[in-house]
Amino acid sequence: MSNKNLIIDAYTDERSSALLYETMAEVEKDPRIADVYRRIAGTEMRHAQKWAERAKEAGITLEEFKPSGRTRTLVWLGKRFGPAMILPAIQSMEQTGTAAYAQMEQTMGMAAEEQSHSRLLNVVTRTVRGGVDGAVLMQLEGRHRFTGGNALRAAVMGANDGLVSNLSLVMGVAGATLAGSGVLIAGIAGLLAGSISMSLGEWLSVQSSRELYENQLKTEAEEIESAPEEEAEELALIYEARGLSPETAHNLASQILTNKDTALDTLAREELGIDPTELGGSAWEAAITSFVLFALGAIIPVAPFIFTSGMPAVFISIGLSALGLFGLGAAITLFTGKPVWKSGLRMVVFGLLAAAVTFGIGRLIGVSVS
Hints:
Helices cover 82% and strands 1% of the residues. By secondary structure, it is an all-alpha fold. The protein has three domains: 3-126, Ferritin (Up-down Bundle), CATH 1.20.1260; 149-208 and 282-369, no CATH class; 210-272, no CATH class. The chain has a two-stranded antiparallel sheet. α1 (3-27) runs antiparallel to α4 (83-102), α4 (83-102) packs antiparallel against α5 (110-124) and α8 (182-226) runs antiparallel to α12.
């Protein structure tokens, strides 16, 4: 794309964004949120003015701004159905604008502001009359994360995955070989393969999240260093969206930004929802925990074949697995509040049904091969 087209497109995009934010400010019923939209619209207009000045310096004549059909449609939808109708589209536009600016040279500091708008919209989209929704506040403030509950839920689900998957595998092989010696080998192989796969996947997931958080923190630190006024304005807008008065929000934001170390910690929590001291937890701890939990569940249907064989081992395996499934179903009621017997029996039925299907398929394959 030529430099001329780039400038014209950037100018048009900023004017379109400003028009959409002004539209949302007009129809927003909460005056605090409306003021946030209005001020973002002002920022977008300043961006457009910068592009207009750059066009003038390059000898480019800008035509009178005319909203595109898409922009006019979004304006109509916003006026007809309210800001919530067009917020997702505007969020997408902000993310696209951030990516585009990141690839440009001499964007005059606008890339950081576009990124700030995108993050701010993530807060505003979940804002309710009278302040921010409680769940959002808890995430932003880094409190009440229900760490214990999440750990217990992960333990139950990890053990359940191991039990159900290995029970199905063991029953399938047992059906094919009439509970021959290969069942034990297949069960142990399934236990190890599943545990390793689960732990590797968990390690990659947590490590990737940590690296993403570290990069975001680095970017935030650079923004604090290069544009502290913009960061203070952004933080003040978040506090205003929560319900603070503009004066109080600005005073609080300015005070926080006076100390760069505490400013980074605060902005990480408020804007990004990141706890800088944790960064999502330890990848190795998550991997080891996932391995152990999966293995604990997977060993239940295999254990009888260590001490016995044939159909007696199959029946013992089914009995132990049914008890394990019932216990896991009962543990889930800690989160759902449902009756223990109902949740436990449901888990038993689903688990044994899966085992019956694989046993039947194994039996058919075994007979066919024979």
